[in-house]
Amino acid sequence: MQLNGTTKILGIFGDPIAHTLSPKMQNAAIAAAGINAVFVPFHVKEDVLPGAVAAIRSLGLVGVNVTVPHKESIIPYLDEIDSEAKLIGAVNTVVNLDGRLIGHNTDGRGFLNSLHSELSFLPAGKNVLLLGAGGAARAAIVALAQADVGRIVISNRTYGKAEELVKEFSGHFPDTELIAEPFATEKLQSHLASVDLLVNTTVVGLQGEDFSLPLIETLSAKAVFYDMVYAPVLTPLQQAANDRGLQFADGRGMLAGQGEVAFELWFGTRPASDIMRSVIAK
Ligand code: ATR
Question: For residue range 141-181, what is the model confidence (pLDDT) as tens digits?
Fold first, then answer.
């Protein structure tokens, strides 16, 4: 990397930030594309977020990624929020268009791209069971519904949150059937037996823990499993899918996918294929 007087700057806002893989992913793609730019981590605490957003304009950054805890709280400081980020209710990518800051959310498209490239899964008309009802679940629901999925059953430890998501999104996506289902019911088991895709959007498995209900055991043999968790070793759910010979993928592809979509928003060109994925694999 050769920094000089015309080097463009991008970065990621978060707290904590030291663990982020985005600088490695983005700088590898920037170098491969021969672009004169650098992507750096910015440790932005909550109380300085407005000033940090103003600095995107005043310092002329190309844009930033946004991570925990700013994905929702950054919204009021931006000039425009694209329709997908509005539906998801969170922004993970900001593009600086001559001082106008546009908020996007590339998590959902990263998820869809990863489903397609790793599991050859196309959502149109399919039945999905989704575990969790937090921010990651919202991105997955919006992306799947926009891709014309037939039905999403949302199941969450706190059932009321699944019900709220169904209520909120049903009006937006009349062609997708949205159903809330509590954990540990017979109905949930019958959904498991018939779905095409199981998605875990919760953090369960990150520390080696498991859900206290049968999931993979009763999952349809034709189903694929997408686990947004990625850990150095297979999580109990991933191990169970592996033991049953089910096709599954973990969240590394989604991490790469959201970065690839963000790169394209900033630079107007696709990053080299698989470069972010290979950085994460290392
Ligand atoms: P994210 O933005 O990553 O989705 P979040 O908004 O905090 O994070 O949501 C976390 C999700 O993981 C929630 O659906 C949460 O369930 P609750 O709504 O019941 O809290 C789920 N979750 C976290 N720990 C869990 C556990 N041990 N068992 C089951 N679900 C869990």
Answer: 999 999 999 999 999 999 999 999 999 999 999 999 999 99
Query: How open is the CA angle 251-115-224, to the nearest 5 degrees?
Result: 90
Helix (H) / strand (E) containing 153: strand 151-156
What pTM, to 2 d.p., does this model score? 0.96
Question: Does 216 sit in the ligand 1 pocket, CB within 6 Å?
Answer: no
Residues 147/119, Cβ–Cβ less than 8 Å: no
The H or E element containing residue 23 is helix 22-33
Report the residue count for the chain.
Answer: 282
71 counts as catalytic: yes
Name, in order, each residue with C-beta under 8 angstroms of 45's C-beta and a sequence gap of 6 or more. Answer: 15
Kindly compute the dihedral angle of the four CA atoms of residues 154, 159, 162, 166, in this order, to the nearest 10 degrees.
Answer: 100
How does pLDDT run across 5-59, given as a tens digit for each residue? Answer: 999 999 999 999 999 999 999 999 999 999 999 999 999 999 999 999 999 999 9
Please provide the distance, in angstroms rounded to a whole number, between the alpha carbons at the two ends of the chain. Answer: 20
From the candidates 8, 24, 71, 86, which is the catalytic residue?
Answer: 71
**Residue 152 · residue 126 · CB < 8 Å:** no
What's the CA gap between 209 and 206, in Å, rounded? 7
Q: Ligand 1 within 6 A of 202 CB?
A: yes
d(C-alpha 243, C-alpha 238), whole Å:
9
Query: How many of the other CB atoms lie within 10 Å of CB of 233?
Result: 7
- Looking at residue 197, the DSSP 8-state letter turns out to be E
Ligand 1 atom closest to residue 131's alpha carbon, by position in its atom list: 14
Looking at residue 278, its amino acid is S
| Rounded Cα distance, 123 and 145, in Å | 8
Tokens 């823990």: give the residue: 209
